[in-house]
């Protein structure tokens, strides 16, 4: 268990011998429009990868392919050495089994509006993991306290700010003890002053050893919390490297223009 | 026969109304799911059902079922034929209101359910259903009013409902205006509260439902 009480699930030896997630040659089209044109990504256990790039470049589609909310047209996805997606596996893939291992946090939170914060966090524990209500509620309380919402257990989503809702959404995803967490622009729909707490929770999570992929426009966060950054544009990985390399010494002209446009103060 | 004796038909009218409403709701659920299905057979069958159910006048349905369907040597009773006929017609409308309710729920809610590995029944019954219910209920209440009014045609195949007894009373000498005014008031006793319910749901959810 890490600092957030989240099981990191794999033995240390496994972490040394295989990647936590490998996506290779991911292709995806919507109609005639090719959105992903052969994406390769590999994450070690406990690694945090940030994906940056212009809107419409394929970032969200790629992250959605990883938990199979979108099904890739070609390529393979391997989690801890086990192939979970290839076109040949399309008819036999167990989507629910795969998604239990991959937590997903959405830009628009997508909390269930008919439920309170604690019910949102407990619901899938009871219905997906078959935990007892008592066990699920205990776990939910602990997670909501860890994301700073211990006093908001009974609040409905409409009674919370965007930042608070997103922290509930993070707790909800963590409650399933995922092996990997995916964040799809988690602060884009939140007022700037409310983003700090969400980013703090995510930094703590990354520091605790959770394997994470974050699609973000928060370059400072990516610089401080990610080990690797990729610049995704036009459906391809235009550049990849450490935050230091990508933000301070970008080799690709498009990366340089993007980083300069988003923020000049990192360089 | 006196005008108050027309009330003898109230039981059958309520039987026709509630029976066909229950049947309509039961049939409407697979119709709604079929119309949302990616399975071509399910979608095609549900669409065909809606087209035929809506396309024929309710009177034609009643005649077809009353004269055309027999269980062994026994003819279908007028009440059963009416319940089935009105149930089929109304299932198409309620099916589309259920579909509209499901489609009114934000895509992100479905995606959250998928990402949390919830089963389809749990997704529908525990997450999406409660959010779709206000829209579906408001429309269904409006269709329920239409259905009650449509039960009046059951008398043409011999169902002994309010209208059947009213006709009989008039034929036996009761004043037609007074008799049917009395029948109209009885219908209003049921349609006004249901209409109020529909408008309450509309105003609370901000949904505009076409009047029945």
N-to-C span of chain B: 33 Å
Query: CATH superfamily assignment of chain B?
Result: MetI-like
Could you please say which CATH topology of chain A applies here? Rossmann fold
| Count of alpha and pi helical runs of chain A | 10
Radius of gyration of chain B: 20 Å
Q: So, CATH architecture of chain B?
A: Orthogonal Bundle
- The sequence of SSEs of chain A as H and E is HEEEHEEHEHHHEHEHEEHH
CATH-assigned homologous superfamily of chain A: P-loop containing nucleotide triphosphate hydrolases
Mean pLDDT of chain A: 90
Total DSSP E strands of chain A: 10
Characterization of this structure:
The complex is a heterodimer of chains A (267) and B (212). Chain A is α/β, with parallel strands linked by helices and 267 residues long. Chain A has ten helices and ten strands. Chain A is 37% helix and 23% strand. In chain A, α4 packs across α5 (133-146), α4 packs parallel to α6 (162-174) and α6 (162-174) packs parallel to α7. The longest helix of chain A is centred in the C-terminal third of the chain and has 16 residues, at 192-207. Chain B has a two-stranded antiparallel sheet. At the A-B interface, α3, β6 and α4 of A face α5 and α6 of B.
Task: Please name the defining characteristics of this protein.
heterodimer, A: 267 residues, alpha/beta, Rossmann fold, 6-stranded mixed β-sheet, 4-stranded antiparallel β-sheet, 37% helix, globular, B: 212 residues, mainly alpha, MetI-like fold, two-stranded antiparallel sheet, 8 helices, 76% helix, disordered C terminus
In short:
Chain A has 267 residues and is an alpha/beta fold.
